[in-house]
Design brief:
single chain
Length: about 60
C-alpha cells in the first residue's frame, strides 16, 4: 500500500521538497493547534466538573 502511494506521488510530482515541508508544517501546526472541540475524555471530565459545580451552586 505505501509503495503504491509513493509511486503515485512520484508520478504526480507530489514528492517535492515543498510538499514535504508543507507536511512538516501541518504536523507542527497540529501539535501547536488547540482544537475548539474538546476531546471526549476532556469533555466528559469538564461536564462532570461542570455538573458538580452547578449542583453546588444550586444547593447554595
Amino acid at each position: 500500500g505505501l509503495k503504491i502511494l509513493e509511486n503515485l506521488n512520484d508520478d504526480e510530482e507530489v514528492t517535492t521538497d515543498a510538499s514535504n515541508k508543507d507536511e512538516d508544517e501541518e504536523i507542527v501546526d497540529y501539535s501547536n493547534y488547540q482544537p475548539t472541540e474538546i476531546k471526549e475524555e476532556d469533555r466528559e471530565a469538564d461536564e462532570a466538573e461542570s455538573l458538580i459545580d452547578e449542583d453546588k451552586i444550586y444547593k447554595d
